[in-house]
């Protein structure tokens, strides 16, 4: 055989061998037991506000089972991101049902009860738990639930749980995950380990926050701390920190002055030093320049510097102590709108909890603008508040004149001046001059006449009068009623003869009528009650109004009655009449369900109410609510002055308005008794309040710019609350329980003989 034939023969044999081997391999099937299977999973969750969707490759499970033991367990772990954040679920009795997560006895923030189970008794010594690792801290769920559903070897777990960090802030995790073939990775129950055992040595579980400034307060949570401050030694990267408080599970410290970025360590008594996460020291901000250095309110101003927060919410900017709106922020540049209520002065920046840094002066170029006075009436020596824009930031920067006579400026800000009406003041316009530019108010200031010479004259007594009463006057008519339990509604057309017209009320005679409030709009009286609303033009003959035709006996309390409208509110429905109650329209509103005791300015633009649901010493103090769209939407007052209202003790006249001011009587939560009820005044729709006086206030009444209140004396202001003069009660009486200001001044007063009505002319 020659060489070429030999080569060809060998090649043919080689290819034949490959074909035979290929056929043989194609017929071979791997035994079923040799096939590698891995559990697959789908995981979706919202954890502390962040959304996660995890693929099967980032998810693992272990199924624990022991022969002869019907109780199984499942451990699942999801890797949430590349920063090392993880969440782990351990269910110690794995079967359909719901596990409730609770705080573990003996630890600071770990979950559960060693006997926690899912619809079955278990002897497992390791409890169900949820572990969350993020930002160097390890958290354990302290409350919530895990619900298990099984379908063959497929498990679906839903969770709704809550964690608490070292600072006491709570955050939640909700979602679900599905595991196919959860029995694939199986281990004996003897290999279950408890990640949160009860220990006798100190531990560090969480530190919050993990970054901050010198002198910031940092909370460390864990176990087995000492309640004696000096027995806990905390160091920031080796520098001793001051311990400000300590209990067995929480230590609070201040970041030391010379601290640098590094780990936090803790030594308790004679135990070993334990090491926690790294704490990063934040550098203080600096301001190098602002651009421009002058402009008008609302102009964009750029602040250049260092160590600003890149988050808008992490910085606070003020123009001469007036807050500015931040447009954008980077570590070296902040863009803001020059504060609308700012005035010429320094720009300051506060980053987080760091000290405020002061920058250059920004000069306002706006012309001053006087918007309104509070009040518009008064006398020489009275304090007057001028509201507006672009005033000077110091008293000396503003020249204020009353009809040409210069006044003393007490305090000054960009939007408000507090001044004293000058001696020799006469009625006329008020002007404000700033940097040579003058603004004149559109309405004149009126000098009030002298106070009236009060001479009390008794006009009525009845055993049907209560200690605290309501009154309403219209033309020469006077209407009087007492607390809710009374069956009296007295009317007089001449202040001599009083008739009980209670039975004239046109309500269901088969039910007890409980009178809530009296009101009038200049043309008619109104009575609200538990059985509806009634109207009378003469005080004797009454007509029932039907705001809700589907429920004619619907009860109401608060009522707004002005010359332009009637308004009633029940829950989330507002009833309005523009023709004195003949026809009504209804509309939904955004108010809380129990707002009541409504009052308004004369034009009904601003309406006010209080939340009657929160009004006892065991509740939080309630706040005032206001509406600027005639009762459609309601907003809670930003004022910090809140308290307890005594309407349920007969004090129905506690919330009143003049043309410009709002008056409210309440007692503080710390002293909730009726004797501690005081009167407060607001000149800016309830956003800020001033205490009127220290005398107990049982009732407040207003009439135009006249305001009266009191208990032991009768206090009267004829200039919208700017000044009050006290008058003695009629001799022999010591309890003022009702006031009405109309054509006469009326009061109800009490002594041992009962309650009497007195009047005085103006």
Automatic annotation (TrEMBL):
Domain IPT/TIG: 201-282, 284-365
One Pfam family of this chain: TIG
Highest taxon of the lineage: Bacteria
Provenance organism: Mucilaginibacter gossypii
Protein name (record): IPT/TIG domain-containing protein
InterPro entries given in the database record: Fibrocystin, Ig-like_fold, Ig_E-set, IPT_dom, WD40/YVTN_repeat-like_dom_sf
Keywords: Signal
